[in-house]
């Protein structure tokens, strides 16, 4: 489609809702609004949709862009419920073999458990199990516990192994160290874990699932365009967005103006605020204080399984590598026949790109010390770093931002930067999308 055709199409389409960003948050919101017969236009600056919740094909492997092909709470969590009950998508979500697995130094075999009650047996020492049990009793008080996790663990005289246990959980699920998250947020996470259950892998992986959501929107009259960048969110006329200025790739001097009734940003809080023409000083201060997550993921192709199961394996004694998974046990279609994807998640200890190369080197050494065979039967397919502007929407777990911008009546935000307490990754995104969609429907019904 050339530029003139694109301009005519957008003008003719006249959307009720413009969604900036085709990540999981933007696409889910678009699907739910399309279901309610709203005209939805989604624009994405990249050449592909899905953001960090999709995959790229590399040498016959479906290499995930972020989410390891996992849905944290399978079909029972907020995302699974939207897919099954609201959108009625038929893609099966296959439950992991194990709730989680633990690889402790000095032990030959992994400790594995299939139900959440078994988590207390994952700790080798009886004293640590009793301490964890006492901590679990504080779950009803979780919204009042605001101390950093590391301080709390020191107060209860937690052993180094118990501290490592929590470091592995917060590192893999949130990309954070114990000093970066509160005990209340960790207890909220455990509460969600007990409520919804273990992770799952969608048939065909994340890219197939994203295609299904995209098709759902298009079949209901929505329009999804890639290679389109938001240049400006014009709120100069008061408490409403007057227009959204877009730019198509390859047309730097030509801008498109769209005037939807509602705008939803999936660009992240920092980028969204920067695109506004009129920003109150208090909002600018909040934006400057936002902290992002820094980390990396290494994806290997392996000739035969390393783990032997589909569960997430945690490393409580490690400094960098916090967990790994082989989703191909449940979705063999993600790799060439007889082969597997092996994916390891890494947290960076220091913030600053100068140290990232060093930390990746140490993480590889740490991973090979856990699985020496990886050096012989594995081959690196991809290394992905997170932070410093990519992904745009990743804000630390435990920073609770409101998805509604208070000084702009018709602007909402969705995505990884807006997760409620205890719901991580795509589950947090889905929960907020559900809330935002209901708010927008009420706003449109009342105002128009």
Characterize the structure shown.
This protein is α/β, with parallel strands linked by helices and 448 residues long. It has three domains: 3-90 and 205-290 and 393-447, FAD/NAD(P)-binding domain, CATH 3.50.50; 117-193; 291-386, Polyamine Oxidase, Chain A, domain 2. 34% of the residues lie in helices and 20% in strands. It is built from 13 helices and 19 strands. The protein has helices at 3-13, 24-35, 78-86, 126-136, 149-155, 160-174, 183-196, 205-219, 269-275, 281-289, 356-370, 374-377, 425-447, and strands at residues 17-20, 40-44, 55-58, 61-64, 93-95, 100-102, 111-113, 200-202, 223-226, 228-234, 243-248, 255-258, 262-265, 295-302, 313-314, 321-325, 340-347, 378-386, 411-413. Helix 2 (24-35) runs parallel beside helix 8, helix 2 (24-35) packs across helix 13 and helix 3 packs across helix 13. It starts with a helix and ends with a helix. The relative contact order is 0.19. The model has no long low-confidence stretch (mean pLDDT 89).
SSE diagram, text form:
Elements: H1 3-13, E1 17-20, H2 24-35, E2 40-44, E3 55-58, E4 61-64, H3 78-86, E5 93-95, E6 100-102, E7 111-113, H4 126-136, H5 149-155, H6 160-174, H7 183-196, E8 200-202, H8 205-219, E9 223-226, E10 228-234, E11 243-248, E12 255-258, E13 262-265, H9 269-275, H10 281-289, E14 295-302, E15 313-314, E16 321-325, E17 340-347, H11 356-370, H12 374-377, E18 378-386, E19 411-413, H13 425-447
Parallel strand pairs: 1-2, 1-13, 2-9, 6-15, 13-19
Antiparallel strand pairs: 3-4, 5-8, 6-7, 10-11, 11-12, 14-17, 14-18, 15-16, 16-17
Helix pairs in contact: 2-8, 2-13, 3-13
């Amino acid at each position: 489609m050339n530029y003139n055709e694109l301009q005519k199409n957008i003008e003719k389409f006249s959307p009720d809702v413009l969604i900036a960003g085709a990540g999981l948050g933007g696409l889910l919101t678009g699907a739910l609004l399309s279901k309610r017969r709203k005209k939805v236009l989604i624009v994405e600056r990249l050449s592909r949709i899905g953001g960090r919740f999709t995959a790229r094909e590399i040498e016959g492997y479906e290499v995930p862009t972020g989410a390891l092909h996992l849905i944290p709470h399978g079909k029972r969590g907020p995302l699974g419920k939207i897919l099954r009950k609201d959108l009625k998508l038929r893609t099966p979500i296959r439950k992991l073999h194990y709730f989680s697995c633990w690889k402790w130094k000095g032990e030959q075999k992994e400790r594995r458990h299939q139900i959440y009650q078994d988590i207390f047996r994952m700790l080798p020492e009886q004293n640590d199990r009793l301490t964890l049990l006492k901590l679990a009793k504080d779950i009803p008080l979780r919204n009042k516990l605001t101390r950093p996790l590391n301080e709390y663990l020191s107060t209860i005289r937690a052993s180094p192994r118990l501290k490592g246990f929590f470091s592995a959980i917060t590192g893999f699920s949130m990309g954070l160290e114990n000093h970066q998250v509160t005990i209340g947020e960790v207890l909220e996470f455990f509460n969600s874990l007990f409520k919804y259950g273990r992770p799952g892998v969608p048939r065909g992986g994340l890219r197939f699932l994203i295609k299904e959501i995209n098709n759902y929107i298009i079949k209901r009259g929505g329009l999804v365009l890639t290679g389109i960048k938001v240049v400006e969110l014009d709120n100069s006329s008061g408490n409403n967005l007057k227009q959204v200025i877009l730019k198509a790739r390859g047309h730097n001097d030509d801008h498109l103006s769209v005037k939807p009734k509602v705008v939803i940003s999936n660009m992240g809080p920092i980028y969204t605020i920067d695109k506004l023409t009129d920003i109150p000083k208090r909002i600018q201060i909040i934006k400057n204080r936002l902290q992002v997550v820094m980390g990396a993921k290494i994806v290997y192709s392996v000739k035969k399984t390393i783990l032997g199961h589909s569960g997430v394996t945690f490393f409580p004694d490690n400094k960098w590598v916090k967990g790994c998974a082989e989703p191909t046990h449940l979705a063999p279609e993600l790799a060439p026949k007889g082969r597997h994807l092996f994916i390891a998640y890494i947290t960076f200890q220091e913030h600053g790109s100068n140290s990232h190369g060093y930390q990746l080197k140490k993480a590889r050494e740490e991973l090979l010390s856990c699985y020496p065979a990886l050096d012989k039967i594995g081959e690196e397919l991809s290394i992905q770093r997170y932070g410093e502007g990519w992904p745009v929407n990743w804000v630390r777990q435990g920073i609770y931002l409101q998805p509604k911008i208070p000084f702009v009546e018709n602007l909402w935000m969705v995505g990884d930067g807006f997760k409620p307490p205890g719901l991580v990754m795509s589950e947090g995104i889905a929960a907020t999308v559900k809330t935002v969609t209901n708010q927008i429907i009420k706003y449109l019904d009342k105002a128009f």
